Structures are given as structure tokens and as C-alpha cells.
Amino acid sequence: MDGATSTRRNSLVILRKEALTTAEELNHEHRDIFVRAHTSVRAKNQRDPRWARKWPTHCLIIDSETTLDPLQSLNFGVYRRCKLVRGKYLCVAEGIFYRDDLPKRELKLLQRYRINPETLPAIEYFPAPITLGLMSRSEFVRRIFWKSVRKGELIVGFNLPFDLSRLAVIWTEGKKGDWSLALSSLWKNPKTGRVAPNPKRPRIVVDSQNSKMAFLRLGSILHRNEWPKEGRFLDLRTLGWALRNVSYNLNGACEAFHVEGKLDHKPSGRISDAESEYCRGDVAATNRLLSAMLGEFNQHPIGLRPDKAFSPASIAKAYLAKMGIKQPKDHFRVPHKILGIAMQGYYGGRAECRIRKTQVPVIHTDFTSQYPTVNALLGNWNVLTASSVKFGPCTAKIKKLLSAVTLPKAFDKQFWSELSFFALVKPQRDILPVRTMYNQKSQNIGLNYLVSAKPIWYAGPDLVASKILTGRMPKILQAIRMVPDGCQSRLKSTNLAGMVEIDPHKDDFYRKVIEQRICYQETDKPLANFLKVVANSGSYGLFVQVDTERHKKEKKVRYFSGETKGQVRSTYAEKPGPWYFPPLASLITAGGRLLLAMLEKSVEEKDGSYLFCDTDSLCIVGTEKGGLVSCEGGKFQLNGKSAIKALSLNEVQEITARFGKLNPYDSSLVREILKIEKVNFVDSDPKKPFRQLFGYSISAKRYALFSKSGNDIRIEKGSGHGLGYLFAPKERKKGEKTDGEDTPEWVMEAWDFLLRKEQGLRSEAPSWLDLPAMMRMVLTTPNVLKNRRPEWLGPFSFFLFPIVSERLGGYPSGFDKSTFLFITPMETDRRKWPFLTGINLFDGQTYQISMNLTRRQNKVVPDSFRIILNQYLKKPEVKSLAPDGTPCVGTTQGLLRRTEIVAGQLIPVGKETDRQWEHGGHTSMLDFKLHEYRTVIKTATADKSDRDRWAKIPRRELIRKSRLSQKAVYAILQGKPVRKQTLLTFKQSVDC
What we know:
Strand content: 25-35%
């Protein structure tokens, strides 16, 4: 054995001992680590839809008014049929439709309104009818709606799924867990009252992806040759989201697109002249908005149809296609194993609280268009435009590269061009993103010390970040590098919004778009905002887009995650988006985390600290002149107490200037890629003097920035995370912004109340503080709330979900959260919330809300907003440790430490939640479970304690209550394995 070999073996032995010692020293149990997986499901070949005009010559606009009872059923509606004339849709016919069983008295009101000379139809294209059309729902569907669909006309509405569901006579669950709406009935059974749908009319299938977007299409039909292959359905709420990256209501959208909005009227749920005028006004506003959106959409020289523009990414993808760029997944034909390696290395943005429940002076910084910047630094445009991409072994080169990594090295632009690699590492207290159960309740991602006996694949920038933060080189077992080769031959130029030319041969798309965005920021804000949207939406999410589907029948799913592969049979499937390419997605987000690590280390080198970080920003502890600030866990001393150093404004400016070395843009246009946020200046205007801000953070994404004046404070910026999912306890003021960019007024009031309370300042309790905390939700999918769903809860119906108080024991006697799921009908009058009546979906019984516990405890006691806010302050940063190294709890204060994770099993998982608890509205959050790709035990046995309790109940009563067979009940009582669902049904039925 030669000396070199002996040395290497001795080094390996030492490393193994060090790893074992470290693992033994960590006072933590082994935790399962969740890693993303790439999946492959055999799918049917999709036929290309027939050619269709971008904008059909005619469209049909509809809007419905509903009753205000829980059912929210159709009362009446208004339609306009419009013709496209010189870039605008002009009204050629207008009418009213009403529910089929409308009482004669109310029908007479509509007939009288129709013949009133003052209610002439708003016809803009002659010859014009002199009276409004008036017909029943079924007549409207037969005479107007289906004719428009058959002709390929555009069916338009604002929140169109709701209006279509109000026209439906039957709704069922579709083949993929979507809504299937039947609008035409064949006959009604006089005995049962059941309506049979007409098989000669297609159903409308609505697949809701989130609260902003739904896919609408025609379902199966007997005589397909009589119908188009697809329907043309356009929801203007979705189109507004795609064009502006903002979730609007109708009035907000009209204001944003500079057209007259809807009438100021509160619906009564009845039929009257005022209600008819209001509904006609909504349709007129929708018509004006459609023409305005048409004009803006047509500024984009892309082949995308408006009814296929589901998000800003849709427009970005259309521009990529317009430039002739081929979709990487199909063009490069990368093996599943490589895609699985890239998915294992995929994590989202980094967000954490570093100083908890301690007021500190701050200077808030963030990166300019972080993901486009990372794309430019990594050279990802060369990958997208390449004729081919290779993944070759490069273990020795990567070890050499990482061994030489220092913070100054990371500020070399040339160095970044070498970071497009993935490496299999055996973590030994490396600081890496870790997806695990930090509080035994929910899965989360933290940047922490990791020890793992099992190797894990990570993206190159994450390994560089670890080396910078720890000073130690990760243990590399294997590495592969992504190398683009050549250039695609059919690339062509395009003009973004008809204004900004992009030549893919010579322009880096990401550089050019950001440069032009800055260039137009002062002279053309709408264009600058569009460039910002297209840059961000085209720089990251499309490369990791997967659409989840639920099938009634199990399918064979192959999964790949790093070194692991296998197959399972599942009803859950992930359908990759057209631009899905995990190697890019993983490298982009890892690059963002590397920038944050470099910023963190730059602050640390100056002995500074930070309050929190959030994806592309770091809130640095700082003042104009610097100095010491009291803080538990700090390494300095101030008046005999622990303290941290606040950097001076000059020191922070030195750090931001240092990042100028990495600026990939034309410096005359984009002067800095790390900037001090405008909130740090008077009136949030960077041209005005610097002002001192203070910050207060509770946990990741829960923070507020405020200014001081004597003994008073003013909230300058407040995070809505952890509160925004609740239905606003006060009505929005007239003129208050609804574009989702600003924190709602009530959340700012909440932060003001909380911080004054924390600092012992005089405070005035908000008027809504003792109202019950509610979530407003929409039944967007039939897959949730299936158990004893009330008849009044139909597709896209609004309802309220009170937050039942576990702290107060708010469940009725004999129930807990496993047997009680409580919802109430929608109610916008906040004064009525404490007295609402709702239903428990487990037993179908009604219960009333009470704000206080009753003697018999037969009511539902929800948390009040007062309790929610009190608990909000106690939310620990579970991903970190307290200053003394103990777990972070609700009372923890000061400078937190990174926790240390010892990996147990590596579990491949599917798409993560969109964290919709923070935004509300979508029912998928009620039963979201992270899908794990491993063999699942489908049977279970009852606990002995449960069996002993049930044995005291007569067998016949158990069979009657559970509605299960005698064989199944006896098997449960005898402790034999039964299907999990069978055991759950039995338990819920018997124990309720």
C-alpha cells in the first residue's frame, strides 16, 4: 500500500469517526427528510385542438344574481351578445334570464322592467332591438348559450365558474376530481324529483387550480361531430391575473384598466328594478373590461389565445415559443434519473427569523429581480437556447472548485458560470436546506446543520453557500455538470409588448428585460410593470410546474429522486408543465439562496446581525452611525447585558456596493443588484433622506417594520403572513386598494395593536377584536368536504369556516377536531357572525356559534381575533434554536441559533402546498397532505382500548350505526386488519 492511499484511508476513518461523534453529540432524534421526486405517468396522447381565431368575432357575456340564502341559487341573470368591431366588442343583443321556477309575481316585475321605455337594451351595433330579451334559464341555455358554444364564440364572465355553476341543473365529480356541470336536463322524475341530464348536450368541466385560476372545457358528448373539440371560456379575473400578476375583483380590475366600473349597490337577493339595473351594470362593466383587456393583450405579438392565458407564466411561455425556443423537457430528452437528481436538489426560497421578539433598529435590503439576476449569472439563457444539453461526471473538478471557495471568490462573475452542477454529498454538519417536520405538525424547509448517513443530492450553489457559511468543504461522493452545446437553429426575434425587441441570438432574455424595465420605470410605468412580471414569471416557476390530478382509478406511477427510484399505484398524479425542466429550477432557487448566504456572511464579517430574511431580502440590524443594541444571545456586552452590533449606514452601503461586482446588467441602466429598500427613506421615497426604522419579528415571514416619533410608533410595513388567510373582520373602505400588493388595512391595525401592547404603549383595541375568526372559502373542488356535504353547498358556493377554539375547548361536548368539521353559510354582515348556525360535516347536525362556553357545552366556540392575535405573538420559529441552544418556544427572545438535524429516512414526496393557509379561499387547504412516494399500508387494526369500549355496545347497534356489514364489524372488534377507510368510517359513526 503506497503512502498516498494509506493517507486517504486514514482520512476516511477520521471523517467517519467525526461524523459518528457529531451525530451522537446532537441531542436530537433522527428525523425523516422529505425530498422532491420526479415522476413519470403514462398518459394518453392529446390531440391538438382545432385552429381557432385569437379573438372570435362574437362573444357571450353573462352574469348571475343569486339568492342570499345559503344555497346561493340562481335568481336571475343578464347576458350580452357582442360583436368584435375595430378592436372592441360591441353589444348586439342584451337580455335577462331567470330561474325556471320563478314565481309569477316576480316574473311580472321583470316583464314590467323589460317594457319600461327607460330600460332600452344597450345596443351599440345596429339594427337594434327596442326591448330587452326575457327568457327562462332553460330557454336561455337552449336558444343562446349552446348556440354560442357550438359556433366557437367566447363565453365571458368575471369569476365565470361561479356563473356557469348557477346555470347548472346537476353537478357531479368528474373523472379527474373536477366539477362536471350539466346545464340541460332531459326530464325530471316526478316521484324522486331527480333531474336527468340531456346526453345530447355536453357537460362543462371545471378544474380549479387555485383561487385565481380554473381550466374550463367541454366534457364528453354523444355526437362529437356536432360540437367543437373545445369550448371557448374566458374568465376575466384569470386574464387580469395573467396580464398584471394581480388578483382583482371586478371594480379593482376596471380601475386598473381605466374603464368605468360597476354600480355602487349592495345586492338584496330579491328581484327588483334596482337589482336588474345592478346586474346589467355588472355585465356592462365586464363588457368594457373585456375590450380594454383585448387592447392590452393584443399588444403582445404572441400566438397565445386569451382563454389559454391562465397566469403571467402563460404569457412568458408564449414569448419563449414565439422566439422559436424549444421546450427543454422534450427537446433535450434528459433521462429520468437526471431529472430525479435535480428534483431531489430542489427547494424553494429561504425565509427565517433570526432575532425573535426583540425590537432592533434595521436597514432593510433586497436584491433586484433576484431570479432573473441568478439566471443571468448562471448563463441559463445559453441552456434554454442550446441545441443540446449534456450531463457529464465532474467529481474531481467540483472537489477542487469547492476546496478553493471563499467569500471573495463568490463575487467573481466568472466563478458563477461554473456552478451549474449537482453533487451527491454525505452531510457532516454542513449548512444546507432541509425539508423535515420541525414541530411534529407541519413540514417546512429550514437552512440548518445537517448530518446524514445517507448521501443526498444538492445543487451546486447550495454547496458553495455551505462552504462560505461554515468554512468547511462538504464531503462530495459524486458530481455531474450541466453543459449546453450549440445553439438552436430556428430562433427569431420578438418584441415584448410591441416595444422591447429581443433577439435570442445575441440578447440574454433575462438581462435585456430587466435593463429595459429599469429604463422605462420613469417614462412608461405600465410597460415597466409588464417587463417585471414577464421577467419574474419566465425565470423560474415554469421550469418546475407540475399540475396535480386525482383519478378515480389507480395508475402506475414511476418516481425518481436522487439515487432512489421505484413505482407505486396511485390515484394521485403530477402532470409536468410544457416547460418543465428541474435542473434549471433547482439551480435558480439555489442561486438565490447563495446570494443570501453571501449577504449573511458579508454582514457577519463586520460583526453584524440580521432580523430576518425572506427569499430575496435581508433585514440588517443597523443605524445611521452604528453601535451596540441590547439583544439576548449577542456576543457583545452593553450595560452588563448581551448585545449585538448594529452596522452603520456606511457599512451597509459598502456591502451593497460589493455586490456591484456581480452586476450582470448594463451598469448605466441597472446601477445595483442589492439595494437599500425604499421603506428606509422618508415617505418611502429613495430621493428623500434616510429615516431610522425598527423591526420586530416573530417567526418566518411574520414581521413588521415601524418608525418612532417620541413615544409613538407608526407601522410602515407589515407582513400579512399568518393573518391574511382570515376573512377581513371589517369591510374594505371605498377607494382602498384591492390589488393584493399592499397589506390589508385590518392587518396593519393588528400589527399596530400588537406592537403597542408589546412595548407598553397606549393602544386602542380595534373594533373587530372580539369577532369570531373566520375563513371565507369557495367550494372549488368536489374532492373536499365530501362527508355529509349539505345540499346548500354547491360548486363554487361561498361559505365560512370558523376557527374552532382548541384553547378554550370550543368543540361541543363529546367532539374533537377529528370528529368535528364545522362550516356556516356565507354572511358578509360581521355583526351576525357571533350568532351564526352551521353544520358539522361529520354527523350532519346543526350547531350554533357562541363566543362563550355554555353550561351544557352544546355550541361551537370559535377563536376571536383577540385570541388569534395573542397566539400570533407566540408562534415559535420552529426551524431554529433559542439563544441558549434549547428549542425555540413561544416566549423565546433574542438571537436564534441554527438547529442541528440528524437525518433518518429519505422520503420522496410530491408537490408541496402553496401555503394557501396564508391567503385563504381555496378548499384544497382543508385536506392537504404531502404525497409520499412509498408503499402505503392500506389496512389498519383498531386499538385495543377502542375495541374494549366498543365491545360494551350491542353488535346490532354497531352495525346499524356504522352501516357496515356484519363481517366488517366483527373483524374490527376482533382486531383483524381492515381497510383504513372502513375503520375510519366505523370510528366516526360509532363515536360521534
